[in-house]
Design goal:
About 10% of the residues lie in helices and about 40% in strands. By secondary structure, it is mostly beta strands. It has 2 domains: about 80 residues, no CATH class; about 120 residues, no CATH class. Strands 1-6-2-3-7 form a 5-stranded antiparallel β-sheet, with no helix packed on it. A hairpin with an 8-residue loop joins β8 and β9. The termini are far apart.
Amino acid sequence: MMGQLTCQRTRMKMSRVILSLFLTLSLCSPLSAQSLQDDSIEMLLDGSPVSEAVSTDDWWGLYFIDNEYVFKPAQFTLGEDPNQGTAAIHQGATPPLFMASGLPNLGTRTIPTAEIDGQYLDGNSSAEIRFSGSTFRMLTVDHPEGQSGYDFQIFLSDGKITQQLDERVEIGVDFPSLLWAGDLDGDESLDLVLSSNAGLYCSPTWALFLSSSAEHYELVKEVAVITEECM
C-alpha cells in the first residue's frame, strides 16, 4: 500500500514538473530568426498619398501577368493629386495589386497563390482558403460590444489556431475583402492582403499580413497597412 502511494506521489510530482517545463518553453521560446522587422516594411497602392520625403528606390510590386502573380521591381514617381496632394504614381502600363518595400529580396519570381472561395465577407460569413495542402477559414463574427448585424470582428483559423485579424469592422457600405493570399515572403506559409472599412465615410484600409513575422499562437502578423481616410 505504501509503495503504491509513493509511486502515485512520484508520478504527480513528475507531471507538475513536465507541465511547468512546457509552460516555460511555450512562453519564453524566442521568435524565429527569420521574423521580419515590422517597422521596416512599407506598402503603397498606385495613387496612394505619400510624403514628399518618401524614397522611390527598392520597391517591389505584385503583378498579375499571364494568369500568374509575379513579384518584381516596381517604379513610381511622385505626382500631385488634386484631392490628396503628393501621390505615388506607378510607372508602367499595368499597375500592380500593391507595392512594398522592406521585404527580403528574393529576386523576381512567380508567387505561389492560394485558391479562395468567398472573397467578399458580409456579416457572419466565412471564406475558405486552400494553400499548400492546408485549408484555412476567414470569418466575420458579430462584435460583442457593437451593433448586431453591423459591427464585426475578422478571424483567421487553420483548425488548430484561431487568430483575430481585425478588431472592428463596420459592414454596410464596403464588405471586407480578401484581396490576395499566397506565399509572398518565401517561407512556404500563408500570407494575406485584406481590405476592410472602419466607417461609413472612410476609404478602405489595405493590410499586409506575413507568416514569417507571426509570433507564438499566431498564423500571420500585420506588417504594413495603408490607413483609411475618413471624412
